[in-house]
Amino acid sequence: MVDRRVHEGEAVIERAVVDGRPVDADARLALDARYGHFTALQVRARRVRGLDLHVERLQSANRELFGAELPRPEVLGAIRAVLGDDLRDASVRVYVVAGDRPRVLATAAPPTEAPTGPWSVTPVVYQRYLAHVKQAYGFQQAHIGRQVARAGFDEALLTTEDGLISEGSITNLGAFDGERLLWPDAPMLHGITMRLMERMDVPQERRPLRAADLPRLGQVFLCNSWGLMPVGRVDDVPLRQDGKLMTRLHEHYDAVSWDPLD
């Protein structure tokens, strides 16, 4: 089972900064209740995969939610500030939250790697409002995550009323069937790891997918800032496992360059 505390952003926060200045837990929690957006990233040796995509995500959401530009140096400055001079590896989140003006909050927690072994998933009827925005502090997704964990699953597949899969509660879903990489054709957050996998040199297609379709596919996987995770079953139905296909996916992902923060 995946540790849902990490899944829901409840890992132990080592430090936090607001507008580049260190804050205590109470100040951070006060801001946590605010309206905003964020991005989650893994830092290794003070480098980040897809750094430009993370900055672009924050800038686009900031224009949409706050009608304001977010300078790249402000984003990078927040990450550097929360890492300080000593942290080289960490799980970092950069939030922009409402206040007297939009405030940039960054948190650092211990680094997280993709769990090994196939994940179990179950469909849940739920569609996020403004699905393309990575929204801060989503009660609904946290609740769904806790409920499916209690039922013995690692992740929820969010679906429409008629069963179309859009995404996981904090992941994107993909399926690699032979030579074709499939993604759901539904409203979703266009995740950073998904965008990096879309650069893989194989035919790719957006297609309506339902839970009943998954057992017929060659390999189903989830992806987020942790990396790539194979899906082993949906409800009680086992899914095919193809080590060669997962190796191809991992080889592409592992070859993505890490962009320096300094």
Number of strands: 16
Count of alpha and pi helical runs: 7
Q: State the name of the first-level CATH class of the largest domain.
A: Alpha Beta
**Percent in helix:** 25-40%
Word description of this protein:
The chain is an alpha+beta fold. It folds into two domains: 106 residues, 2-Layer Sandwich (D-amino Acid Aminotransferase, Chain A, domain 1); 140 residues, D-amino Acid Aminotransferase, Chain A, domain 2. 27% of the residues lie in helices and 31% in strands. The chain is built from seven helices and 16 strands. The strands form two sheets. Strands 7, 8, 9, 10, 11, 12, 13, 14 and 15 form a nine-stranded mixed beta sheet that branches. A hairpin with a 2-residue loop joins strand 10 and strand 11. The longest helix has 16 residues. 37% of the residues are buried. This is Class IV aminotransferase. GO terms for molecular function: transaminase activity.
Annotate the secondary structure layout.
Layout: H1 4-7, E1 15-18, E2 21-22, H2 25-32, E3 36-44, E4 47-49, H3 51-66, H4 72-83, E5 90-97, E6 103-109, E7 119-125, H5 139-150, E8 155-159, E9 165-168, E10 172-177, E11 180-184, H6 192-197, E12 204-207, E13 220-224, E14 227-234, E15 237-238, H7 243-254, E16 258-260
Parallel strand pairs: 7-8, 7-14, 11-12
Antiparallel strand pairs: 1-2, 1-6, 3-4, 3-5, 4-16, 5-6, 8-9, 10-11, 10-13, 13-14, 14-15
